[in-house]
Amino acid sequence: MKNIAYAGSFERLWQSEAEAENKLYNKLFCITFLLCNPAASIGFYLADDPFFSTLLYTHCISSSLIAVLLLLHHKKVITGQKMSFFTQLMLICFYTYLLAQPHKSYAQSCLNLTLGVIFTGLILRWPVRYALASSLLSIISYPAAIYFFAEPPAFKMFFAEGGVFLLIAQFLFPFVMKLSVGKDKREFYYRHNLQEQNIALEKQKTIAENATKAKSDFLSMMSHEIRTPLNGIVGIVHIMMDEDQNSKNRNELLTTLKFSSDHLMAVVNDVLDFSKINADHIQLDAFAFDPGLLFENLRKTFVPRADEKKISLIFDIDSKLPSHIISDSVRLNQIITNLIHNAIKFTETGYVKFTVREIAREEKTLLLHFTVEDTGIGIPVEEQPTIFESFTQVRQEDNENKGTGLGLAISKELLLLFKSEIFLKSEPGKGSVFSFEIQFPYLEEEVAVKPVPLKKIVTAIAFPQAKVLVADDNKINVTLATMLLKRKNILFEVAQNGKEAYELFLQGGFNLILMDLRMPVMDGFESTALIRKIDQNIPIIALTASAFKEEKDRIDASGFTGYLTKPFIPEDFYAYIFPFLGVQTAKVS
C-alpha cells in the first residue's frame, strides 16, 4: 500500500511537472495552427486552385475555435495538455472535411498534414493515450472521408500523392510520443529522487550539526560543572595536606569539601536520571503518602537556601487536601524540587512561591494544580520554546548561575509519566511561573504508608569476628573501603583482580566479598562465577559505578548477593554490609 501511495504521489508530481514544463509549447502549438492554417490557403490561391475559398473559410472557423480554447486555458478552465489535445482533435475533423472536398491535387494537403504530425511530435509531450487517440482518428477518418465522400479517383490519388507517408507518420506518432515522454519521465524521476535525497541529506546534515553543537555545548557545560567542584576538592585536599590547620580552618575546609562533593554528585545524578528516562528505565512506583508532610519537608529543605539569599519562601498549600494520595512521591518530590531549586537559584530579590490547589474531586480521584512562581530574572520569549530541552539554560550575560541544564528537561519527562505537561509564563526582569496539573487517586482513611527513607546514623551494637575480602584494582576505592573497615575493626584482605580474589577465597575464612566488576586479568563476573561453583552461600556484593538497569540485571543474574553503587557515603556502606556480617544495627534519624 505504501508503494502504491508513493507511485500515485510520484505520478501526480510528474503530471504537474509535465504541465508546467510544456505550458509554453502547448500554447505555441495552438497559436501556430491558429495563424498558419489560414495562411496555408495562400498557396492554393497562388496556384489558382478553386479549393482556396473552401480552405480559407474552413480554417477561419477552426482558428476561431482554437482562439476559444486558448481563452479557456487562460481562464484556467482547461490545462495546457487538454487545450492542445482538443485543438488536434478539432483540426482532424476539419482536415477530414477538407480532404472529402474536390481536389486537383492531394500533394500539398498531404505534405502539410505530414509536417503537422512531425511538428506535433517535436514540441508536444502528451500522455500516450492522447497520441494514440489522435493517430487512430486520423488513420480511420482521412481515408474513409475520401473513399465515401470524394470522387472515385480521389482515393487512389490521395495515396499516390503522399497519403501513404501521412498515414505512416500518424502510425509512428504514438511510438515517438511514448519514447519522448518516457525519456522525459525518466529524467524527472532521477531529478526527483536526487532532490529527495538532497533534502534527506540536508536534514541529516542539520541533525548532525545540531547534535554536534549539542554535544559541544554539553561537553563545555559538563566540563565546567565537573571541574568546578573537582577544583574545590583537589585544592582543599592539597591545602589540608600541606599546611597545619587549626580546628576552625579545618572545619571550614571540610565544609567546602563536602559542598563540592555534593555538587559533583548532583551533576552525576542529573545525567544518570536523564539517561534512564530517555531509555524508558523509569516507571512510577505508586503508594499512599501524606501530601502535607511531603510539602512541609520540601519547605524545610529550601528554607536555609532562601534565608541565605534573603528572599521570601512561601508555601501556599490547599488546606482541604485529603490525608493520603496515591502516587510516586519520590518522583513528584523530584519535579517540585527541580522547579523550586531553579526558582531560588535565579531569584536575587523578592520571593519564591509554591502553590497547590485542588481543582476538582471525584469519588476516587482528585485533580491538583501546582505552581512555582518567582520574581527572578525571567525568561525571554524567544528562549521559552527551548527552555525544556536538554542542557539548555537562560542565556543572560549577568547570569552567573550554572548547572547541568537538565532540571527542567527531567521535570518535563517525569511529568509525561504522570500523564501531565508543564506550562511556563515569564517576562524578563519580572520573574516566571511554572505550572502543571496531575490527577491522583486519594484516600481519606488512615492507611499503612510506605516509610520515607530517613537519614541514617548506623551504629554497630555487637561485632562478630568477621573477615572481608576486598577485590578492586583502583587504589582510591581500596583505600576508602579498607579505611571504613578499619574504623569498625573488621578484618580484611585485598585482591588486585578477579583471579587474586578467587585464589584468596580458596584459602577460606571470609564472611563477605566486596567485588569490583571491572578489573584486569579476570573481571568480577568471571571471578564470582568460579566462586559460586564452590560456595553458593557466601555473600558477594558487587561494587559498581553504573546506575543503569542493564548492569543491575546482569549483576542479579550472575550470582551476586547484591550491589552497592559507587560513590557511597560511610553510613550507607555500613548499613549495607553489616547485615551480611551478622552485625546488629541501630538507625537514628
UniProtKB/TrEMBL annotation:
<feature type="domain" description="Histidine kinase">
    <location>
        <begin position="221"/>
        <end position="442"/>
    </location>
</feature>
<keyword id="KW-0472">Membrane</keyword>
<feature type="transmembrane region" description="Helical">
    <location>
        <begin position="162"/>
        <end position="181"/>
    </location>
</feature>
<dbReference type="Pfam" id="PF00072">
    <property type="entry name" value="Response_reg"/>
</dbReference>
<protein>
    <recommendedName>
        <fullName>histidine kinase</fullName>
        <ecNumber>2.7.13.3</ecNumber>
    </recommendedName>
</protein>
<feature type="modified residue" description="4-aspartylphosphate">
    <location>
        <position position="516"/>
    </location>
</feature>
<dbReference type="Pfam" id="PF02518">
    <property type="entry name" value="HATPase_c"/>
</dbReference>
<dbReference type="InterPro" id="IPR036097">
    <property type="entry name" value="HisK_dim/P_sf"/>
</dbReference>
<feature type="transmembrane region" description="Helical">
    <location>
        <begin position="84"/>
        <end position="100"/>
    </location>
</feature>
<dbReference type="InterPro" id="IPR003594">
    <property type="entry name" value="HATPase_dom"/>
</dbReference>
<dbReference type="InterPro" id="IPR036890">
    <property type="entry name" value="HATPase_C_sf"/>
</dbReference>
<keyword id="KW-0808">Transferase</keyword>
<keyword id="KW-0418">Kinase</keyword>
<dbReference type="GO" id="GO:0000155">
    <property type="term" value="F:phosphorelay sensor kinase activity"/>
</dbReference>
<keyword id="KW-0902">Two-component regulatory system</keyword>
<keyword id="KW-0547">Nucleotide-binding</keyword>
<feature type="transmembrane region" description="Helical">
    <location>
        <begin position="52"/>
        <end position="72"/>
    </location>
</feature>
<feature type="domain" description="Response regulatory">
    <location>
        <begin position="467"/>
        <end position="581"/>
    </location>
</feature>
<keyword id="KW-0812">Transmembrane</keyword>
<dbReference type="InterPro" id="IPR003661">
    <property type="entry name" value="HisK_dim/P_dom"/>
</dbReference>
<feature type="transmembrane region" description="Helical">
    <location>
        <begin position="106"/>
        <end position="124"/>
    </location>
</feature>
<dbReference type="GO" id="GO:0016020">
    <property type="term" value="C:membrane"/>
</dbReference>
<keyword id="KW-1133">Transmembrane helix</keyword>
<dbReference type="Pfam" id="PF00512">
    <property type="entry name" value="HisKA"/>
</dbReference>
<dbReference type="GO" id="GO:0005524">
    <property type="term" value="F:ATP binding"/>
</dbReference>
<keyword id="KW-0067">ATP-binding</keyword>
<keyword id="KW-0597">Phosphoprotein</keyword>
<feature type="transmembrane region" description="Helical">
    <location>
        <begin position="131"/>
        <end position="150"/>
    </location>
</feature>
<dbReference type="InterPro" id="IPR004358">
    <property type="entry name" value="Sig_transdc_His_kin-like_C"/>
</dbReference>
<dbReference type="InterPro" id="IPR001789">
    <property type="entry name" value="Sig_transdc_resp-reg_receiver"/>
</dbReference>
<feature type="transmembrane region" description="Helical">
    <location>
        <begin position="28"/>
        <end position="46"/>
    </location>
</feature>
<dbReference type="InterPro" id="IPR005467">
    <property type="entry name" value="His_kinase_dom"/>
</dbReference>
<dbReference type="InterPro" id="IPR011006">
    <property type="entry name" value="CheY-like_superfamily"/>
</dbReference>
